[in-house]
Design a protein that fits this description.
This protein has 183 residues and is α+β, with helices and mostly antiparallel strands. It has one domain. It has four helices and seven strands, in the order αββααβββββα.
């Protein structure tokens, strides 16, 4: 075996034993600066427009905005393995679902990252559950189950029956939100 077989050949090495080679130092961002730049470029800012222009954002939308931005703060590998960052497609689909389902009277939503870049949307109260999985490609699947095990809504939210599923999910969320207030 020759000396060259033991050394990787790339732009930073040379085949001459003992010789050193490198590029002049170039300015670059520190890891902290890169992270700060990445975080500031991946933010969601919700706004409400009315007949008189922009209006103050209702509290429940401020809470959704805060939770979404926490998910956007996660970098690739957030699970300690190979999890992807939240995709913009999943983010858009999640916001569309949340804006169709929630009202000021809705229970606060729970949001969880998925390894494929998607988002899990959940509400759980007194044995009732409403879950929506939005995968990294923006495909959404809903499951709503009452405390007695009855399936209220289940299916893909991108299918032809989307309106019926969304209507049932919206009614169920309103029902469990009202029942939570009386507990």
């Amino acid at each position: 075996m020759t000396l060259l077989d033991d050394r990787p050949l790339n732009g930073l090495t040379t085949p001459y034993p003992g010789a050193t080679y490198g590029w002049p130092s170039t300015p670059s961002l520190t890891t902290t600066e890169q992270e700060s730049l990445r975080r500031s470029s991946r933010r969601v800012k919700l706004a409400v427009a009315g007949p008189m222009g922009a209006q103050q954002l209702p509290q429940y939308l401020k809470e959704i905005e805060r939770k979404i931005n926490r998910l956007l703060d996660l970098s690739a590998g957030w699970d300690g393995r190979r999890a992807a960052c939240t995709t913009s497609t999943a983010l858009t689909a999640t916001l569309q679902v949340l804006l169709q389902l929630t009202t000021p009277d809705s229970l606060p939503v729970q949001l969880f990252p998925l390894p494929d870049g998607g988002i899990q949307i959940e509400w759980h109260i007194s044995g009732n559950s409403l879950e929506i999985e939005v995968d990294g490609d923006g495909e959404a699947f809903v499951t709503a189950e009452s405390s007695d095990g009855q399936i209220i809504a289940e299916g893909d939210l991108d299918s032809a029956s989307t309106q019926g599923l969304m209507r049932n999910a919206r009614k169920f969320l309103a029902h469990i939100s009202r029942s939570a207030v009386t507990l």
